[in-house]
Amino acid sequence: MSIPSDVLRALRSAIENGQSELASQTVREALAAGIDPLVVMEEGLMDGAGALGEAFECGRVFLPELMLGGRALKSAMAVLTPVVQVRRESSPAGAPAPIVVATVLTDIHDIGKNVVAAMLSASGFEVIDLGVDVPPKTILERAVDVDARLIGISALLTTSLPYMRDLIDLLVSKGVRDRFKVIVGGAAVSAEYAARIGSDGTAPNAAQAALLAKRLLAPHPDALGVV
User: Fold this and answer.
1) What pLDDT digit, counting tens, does each position of 165-175 carry?
2) Known active-site residue 222
3) Is 173 a known active-site residue?
4) Which band of pLDDT confidence, cut at 50, 70 and 90, is reported for residue 1?
């Protein structure tokens, strides 16, 4: 087994087991070993977070373990994000498109949102993360303040799903629905539900969410060939 593979496996394990200090230390080791930051994110952080999320959904781990994993992810991202930002700032592309992300009202789960936010940032977007348990009105106000072009909202709990519809209904009632693209995600969200509430789409993972955002914000969306 190569050293990079060992490091990535250790990083996934640190996220799954909620080991914050080990997670941040392992990110440093991965970068020092010359592993591309996006590989660290996708094959280390995202895989670890995805495995933890699946374990939670299946009842193999519970809320305390999920929260510890979220903290480990944040600790790791604190090391990785500055490296990704330097890469983004050195890119010849123009100013990044602002995206507002949040976990909706009554839901405090953020591990999936954090992974998506990290992938969006790595993909060149400016991400404004509002955190968890955020009311639709607050999401809209912040999106207007930063002149966002896309809003991404997440829910792990089925009881929180109505607040996704509430946000879209609020955009419609305020006459600004056409101003924002809205993508939805989280364990509670299906493609059918995303379509039913009038969102602009959902994605099965963070990498696909970034591709979806690129398609929705591209001058000619069909050119990217993403469905």
Assistant:
1) 999 999 999 99
2) no
3) no
4) very low
